[in-house]
Structure formats: C-alpha cells, structure tokens
What does this fold into?
Amino acid sequence: MLKEERLQLILCRLEENKKVRLCDLSEELSVSEDTIRRDIRELSERGLLTMVRGGAIPHAPGPKSFTDRIHFASKDKQIIARKALEFLHDGQVVIFDGGTSALAVASILPKDLKITVATNSFPVASMLEDHQNVEVLFAGGRLYKESFVTTGFETIRFFQQIRADICFLGICSIHLQIGVTSHFYEEAEVKKTMIAASNLVVALTTPEKIDTAESYYICPATDLNTIITTIPHDARLQLFNAAGISIR
Amino acid sequence: MLKEERLQLILCRLEENKKVRLCDLSEELSVSEDTIRRDIRELSERGLLTMVRGGAIPHAPGPKSFTDRIHFASKDKQIIARKALEFLHDGQVVIFDGGTSALAVASILPKDLKITVATNSFPVASMLEDHQNVEVLFAGGRLYKESFVTTGFETIRFFQQIRADICFLGICSIHLQIGVTSHFYEEAEVKKTMIAASNLVVALTTPEKIDTAESYYICPATDLNTIITTIPHDARLQLFNAAGISIR
DNA sequence: GATTAATTTGCAACATTCTGCAAAAATTGA
DNA sequence: TCAATTTTTGCAGAATGTTGCAAATTAATC
It folds into this structure.
C-alpha cells in the first residue's frame, strides 16, 4: 500500500469518526504505530488535522464568526502566547496583528498590565473589553468580515501615525532568503506598515510556517527582531539566529 | 477515549448547562475527579472557561458581551427602526451612529440590501457580519469600552473623508431653540462630523428626549432633515415640523 | 473554631512520544 | 540492469505525558 493511500485513509477515518487513534489505524493498516504517528504528524504539518496524544482530531473547522474563532487557541499558540507576555511591560504601546496568534496573546494579558494596544482586529479589541488598564486604539478601514480585521488605505494610514514599542506579528510564512510573506495582498500591506511603525518586531510562528513562502512579500527576515515559536532549538532556526534574529 | 475528546466534551457540557461539576463529569467520563480537575485547569489556561471550586463556569463575558447587549432593543426602538428602513435603498452610503437606536436599525437590515455602512460602532459592525451585500467601513480611533464605539481625532477625520447619503443619528436630546445636544463631549464632536458628512440627517428619537437639552452642543435643530419617533402626531413635534423638519 | 468539602502536592504505574539507528523499499542515474 | 542514494519503516531505549491515589493544605459552611 502506498503511503499516500494511507494518508488518504487516515483523513477518511477522521471524517467518519471525528477522531482517529494510533492503535486502531495501526491495526487496520498493518503498520507500526510509529509509522501512523509519522503520517499523522505529516498531515498535521500540512494543516489537514490536529495531532493529539494518542491520535488526531479534525482541524478546527474554518470558523466563520470571530466569536467562534476565539475558541480555537491551540496548545502551540498558548505556549507561544505565554512566551510573548515576557516582552510586555507597563507603559508600552503595542501593536497587535489580526491573526489568531496575536489574539492568543491578548487573551492571556494580565488584567493589571497598563499598556496601549493598537490593533486592526475586532477580536483582539473585544478580548480587551474588561482590561481597565489597557487603552485600545482601533485602526479604521474596510472591514473584512471573514476575519474581522480592517484593511485598506485607512488602516495603513492609521499605523503610519503610530510609534509603537512592540509589534506582535501573527503567523506569516518565514524563509531566511525569501523573507516574510503572506497569503493576502491587503494583509501584507498592513503588516508592512505595522513593522515600520514598531521599535521591536516579534513574530509569533508555529513550526509549520518556518522555511515556507507565500505570494505576497512583507519584509526581509532580518527585519524581525525576535521569532517566538514552540521549537526554538530546531536546526532550521539556528540559521535565523546566526542572521541576528533572536529565537525564543 | 482520547484526552482531547474529553476536553471537547467538557466544553460541550459547559455550553449546554452553563456550568459543569467535577463529580458529574467524573461519573459520565469514568475517570477520577483529579483528572477532570486537571482537564478543567488546562482549559482554563487556554482561556476557554473559568475554573471555580467544584467545577467550572463559562468564560467571563467575553467577545459576545456586546452582541448580547443588543437584545434590549425596546419595543419603541423596534418601531423606530422599521420606519428608518424606508429611507434605505441599494447603492447608498449610510452612516450609523453608535447608539442602540442605530443598532436596532442595523439588526433588522434586509440581507439583500446592497449598501455601504460607515460606522464607529463595534456592535453595528458585528451585527452586519453575515450581510454579504453590505460593505462596512469602520472608523478608527480610541475605543470606548463602555459602549464599544471609537472616538477622538481619528474617528472625526475618518468621517470627514466620507460623503454619505444618509446618517442615522442615535438618540440625542432635541430642543427647538437650543438644538441637538449630547451628554458626552467626545460623542458630540463625532456626531457633528457625521452630520456634516451626510446629505440627509435622520434622527432616531424616543419621546422622552424631545424638548430636553444636555451639556454638549451638536447642531441647531434645523440641521436635522427628519425626526423618526413613536409619537409623530405629538403637539410638540408640530413646531419642529413648522421649522421645516420632516416628522415620521 | 470545628467540620466538611475541595484543592494541591508528591508519587508510582502506566502509556505515549521522541530519538537514533539499521534494515527494507523505492528512486535515481549511469 | 545495477549500484548508489534517498526515503520509509520498525524497533529499542530514553524522555515525557497521563492518570489515580493518598497525605497535606486550603477554602467554605455552619
């Protein structure tokens, strides 16, 4: 049996049962659990499912409303968010990107932290609703209803008028030679401006985005001051470190 | 059963019953209370619920809170909102004020109406989430967390750059001699700009606001083109009519 | 303040995952 | 075709995660 067939069948079973277990699949396919585990890891890296201890569950389905979207804070993002918190101190002006990674940071922001948050993300802003000590500056613009962020000229102009201490840049593809890239043109343009407006640029990146590239260019990798990820000791990241980017 | 399934089921039960108890879950899932406790702690760390003694309750009023507020759209406001709809046609650019009256209009907007909405109100914007045909332009600025509207220079500048066909002005105090007034300075400034940006100004006013005044001046009463209210035949309103303001 | 219930902590048993490695299978290039 | 190379697979041992239990601590109730 070809490997690809196996991968397909795993996705099939997952669709059927809303979960798969290593031991079941190992038996059904007559291969070792290690193999299944590697298969599942590969599918997970392709973003087709979520790997959990003992098996896998379907990927958080493309949530529509941003209220749903908030529920999807994966373990990885939680880990990354906690590391990100270490960068924050009273009095700072902080730009939050629109992605779920930045949202995860917002969701665990201590209530007593006194900062100013500039963002173009509804979810981030509403997450900060009962943080008395956080001042929220919201970027105007055209509203993307899929992800509830604003984009366009207004948004860019807003960030052009800000000098921030830190910018938390959500997941983008990062490649040492190609640089930081994004899947959407508008998004890329906004991120560019956020980066230009910030003293320190911190990228929040899950492993699967490392050494990949997408259609729209944002900046050279070296424009990032820090990359926060779950696998700071990964060999690929050492090259980034050598290029002067701090890895956490 | 995978651990992850257990976590999902806990969230499920929480959604259903608005609370979960360790002992119930322990029995249902056939694991020790300790395990459930650890699960709940983990979910709590992910920000998906609030851990309390003996179980868990849903997360503190989060992002949904301002959509919840929408429910107290009184009967009066429903009536006013329905009348307001008659002013809307495909292709218009419409400014929505931040108050609950304008929100009531947004909440009954037909799904097939093709308009552009400019607003500084989070609730209005999120109300239009699944209106495919409505383009939303959102005004940036400082976010007031009490009412979830933006205000300040940014907001004013945003509306200065717009030419709207209609503006729905939420409840303000209206007095024939004193004019239109509001309780908050910032709010008054924003409303001024909205009025200046619009071809037609429609005020949505419950009866108790008529012939009253507050601290901050917005504009002379005659700047309003139309007043929509529940009591169009009230004697006091005839004077407004005589001054050239249409009463509905 | 005494009593009860819930939580925390440390621990041992167990299960899963990770790591490096070697054999087997597939692919490549002459 | 055959040898060299790469990929895939299974395995063993180490590392890590999970679970239930019991004792110690903390919080709630009367």
Notes: The radius of gyration of chain A is 19 Å. The interface with chain B takes residues 19, 21, 50, 52-55, 57, 64-67, 70-71, 73, 75, 78, 104, 107-108, 122-123, 125-130, 135-143, 145, 148, 150, 154-155, 158 of chain A (CB under 8 Å). The longest strand of chain A covers residues 198-204. Residues 22, 33-34, 37, 53-54 of chain A lie near DNA strand C (CB under 10 Å from a C1').
